[in-house]
Automatic annotation (TrEMBL):
Reactions it catalyzes: L-homoserine + NADP(+) = L-aspartate 4-semialdehyde + NADPH + H(+)
NCBIfam families, per database record: PRK06349.1
Active-site residue numbers: K202 (proton donor)
Family from the record: Belongs to the homoserine dehydrogenase family.
Entry protein name: Homoserine dehydrogenase
The enzyme's E.C. designation: 1.1.1.3
Gene3D superfamilies, per database record: Dihydrodipicolinate Reductase, domain 2, NAD(P)-binding Rossmann-like Domain
Record-annotated Homoserine dehydrogenase catalytic domain positions: 134-311
Length: 404
């Protein structure tokens, strides 16, 4: 049986996890005869060379993507500016590409997919969305003959960890963030995670695969979690709600609305029980109705496991002399709702002794520290922006409530 030569770009958390799994005996993988011949890192050290004696290490990733003996390139080094040209070269040279790089796929996935199709090679990226949760495979295989009308997910483990700690242990935002950093769930500069940027990349990829749309950052209502207070969680409990960092793709007014935000959700919602660094997604569709997928959204082995699943798919296709295809469910999707038109009930925290009569409030309570919490009727983002302009000091926080 022919060997399949693999080159890996990056031997950090995920890259080392990939090699760990490939070294374990496994009947399916053994049958595929993968051989990792080369790997690119920034630092080639003696310790690394001893750890991977069978792999030629290089600091020149370009030499791997142009190596005529390599059939599959696994990109787990991260970054966009450096990896984009590398993967274009790999695909153009007829190599299958597997990547865990959400930033790259969100920003350049369409172009890279076009190149992959033109050269009859695979571009797979299961690990780029929710790490170890097999959402892309499930969407493209299990849902191939179904019609999805809504996706609601927790796709950023850092934000979920922070909000879970604020809810369950009463920590402040800063305390919860510091704990996340101590445990390795948040980076020293957490902006991508807490501002919703990472989640927006994942929503971009999911919306493309599930709904056939091609959103840019301007198409997504994106609100981060910084500034939430532990009293927000107590107030939410009064309405049998919890606050979760969600990505939501749902249909409104005949268009698709894309939102990344903390949301107040019912305590009965399946995602209310997905805590700490875990990820989860609820898919609503015609045939399967409601399905929850949940699991580790990051980490060496879960993420590497998704890379390996893609690698096995590619390996089987190479053996069968087929082109491995990754097809979105819908070729041409619906229009995208302008972000300011998105409508939802709002959960708001108000500094002051009374709420203005102009706010369409349906229920209110006063917290122990004198903040008024209120639930409003469904309003558009444009209306909320007017409130923010009119009441810049009184309107402390507001975010949407997830509808049933
Ligand atoms: N970590 C996770 O749980 C997770 C989950 C889902 C997706 N991802 C994605 O997976 C990718 C890798 O993440 P990671 O956590 O494994 O990153 P990491 O631990 O920082 O590893 C990056 C690796 O790439 C190498 N590298 C970086 N730039 C390079 C360059 N210009 N030339 C050669 N080698 C280079 C580094 O070499 P040195 O070791 O020599 O510095 C390192 O081995 C990212 O796109 C990330 O978003 C990660």
């Amino acid at each position: 049986m022919n060997t399949i030569n693999v080159g890996i770009l990056g031997l950090g958390t995920v890259g080392a996890g990939v090699l760990t799994i490939l070294r374990q005996p496994h009947p399916d993988l053994a049958g595929l005869n993968f051989r990792v011949t080369r790997a690119a890192v920034r630092h080639v050290t003696a310790a690394r060379e001893q750890k991977y004696p069978e792999i030629a290490l290089t600091t020149e990733p370009q030499s791997i993507v142009t190596d005529p003996h390599i059939q599959v390139v696994v990109e787990v080094m991260g970054g966009v500016e450096s990896t984009w040209p590398l993967l274009k070269t790999a695909l153009t040279q007829g190599k299958h590409v597997i990547t865990a790089n959400k930033d790259l796929i969100a920003q350049h996935g369409d172009e890279l997919s076009t190149i992959a199709r033109a050269h009859s090679v695979a571009l797979f990226y299961e690990a780029a969305v929710m790490g170890g949760v097999p959402i892309l495979h499930t969407l493209t295989h299990t849902y191939a003959n179904d019609r999805i009308h809504r996706l609601v997910g927790i796709a950023n483990g850092t934000s979920n960890f922070i909000l879970s700690q604020m809810h369950q242990a009463g920590r402040t935002y800063q305390e919860a963030l510091t704990l996340a950093q101590q445990k390795g769930f948040a980076e020293a500069d957490p902006i991508n995670d807490v501002a919703g940027i990472d989640a927006a990349y994942k929503l971009t990829i999911l919306a493309r695969v599930a709904f056939g749309v091609h959103p840019s950052a301007q198409d997504i209502n994106c609100q981060g979690i910084a500034g939430l207070s532990p009293t927000d969680f107590t107030a939410a409990t009064h309405w049998y709600q919890v606050i979760k960092p969600l990505i939501v793709a749902d249909q409104q007014q005949g268009s698709l609305a894309l939102t990344v935000s903390p949301f107040a959700i019912s305590q009965n919602h399946p995602l209310s029980r997905i805590d700490n660094e875990n990820n989860g997604i609820v898919i609503n569709s015609v045939n399967f109705q409601e399905m929850l997928l949940a699991g580790p959204g990051a980490g060496a082995l879960p993420t590497a496991g998704s890379v390996i699943a893609d690698l096995a798919t590619v390996g089987h296709a190479i053996q069968a002399q087929r082109v491995p295809v990754f097809a979105p469910l819908i070729a041409v999707g619906p229009s995208l709702l302008p972000p300011e038109a998105y409508r939802a009930q709002r959960f708001l925290a108000w500094q002051g002794s009374t709420l203005p009569d102009t706010l369409p409030v349906i229920d209110r309570q006063i917290s122990a520290n004198g903040i008024i919490y209120a639930l409003t009727q469904s309003v558009s983002v444009a209306e909320v922006r007017l409130w923010q302009e009119k009441y810049p000091t009184q309107l402390l926080r507001q975010f949407p409530v997830l509808s049933d």
